[in-house]
Amino acid sequence: MDDASATPELPDHRTYTAMTQEGEAAVGRIAIWAAYVEQHLVDLCAELINEGNAAVGNTVTANMSASSMIQLAKKLLLESDTTSAENKAVTLAALTEAKAALEERNKILHATVGGSLVEGSTTFWNSRRKRFTSGALAGQLEAAQHSPAELDALGARLYKAMDDLWECYLSVSSRGEK
Question: Whole-angstrom Cα distance, residue 66 to residue 58?
Fold first, then answer.
């Protein structure tokens, strides 16, 4: 830091994101709550596979993607004769929302970030999704701009999905009985 400077110089890994600290923190919360969503998917699948004994369910889901666990949980719910129709409906809705929230998470966490002409926003370029698949613009990356508030809203959405999945887990497990 230069003695005349009032602001400390940030290391390279902090300066090249083109994000504010608030935006960086929001991306961190997205990652944190998405990890909890995925863990609750493991727990829910394990309970649906082998009620009360998570070992078998954890073995089955060990290398599954979140999307695959959501598909599995939906199939297991539909086949379950021990889960009430109401719990099935609530859980299926929670799984659908978790899938949508995780897809939005992927567009943030699997993107390359950079500056934006929109004040206070960051651009997220997603190389997994090409905006154009043919024509003169073929291969262009999909890009989206997000403000820290929009990123925080996705973190809140994932938090709610995590909380809803936990409630669903409790409702289908014997732990939910009083």
Answer: 13
Q: How confident is the model over 81-129, as pLDDT tens digits?
A: 888 999 999 999 999 999 999 999 999 999 888 777 777 888 888 876 6
Residues in Cβ contact with 109 at an 8 Å cutoff, skipping those fewer than 6 apart: 27, 30, 31, 34
CA distance 131 to 134: 9
User: Which residue type is seen at 139?
Assistant: G
Q: How far, in whole angstroms, is CA 134 from its chain's centroid?
A: 30
- Of the candidates 18, 21, 25, 23, which has an alpha carbon nearest to the alpha carbon of residue 114? 18
Residue 140 DSSP class: P
Q: From CA 50, how far away is CA 168, in angstroms rounded?
A: 16
Q: Helices 54-61 and 21-49 meet at what angle, rounded to 10?
A: 120
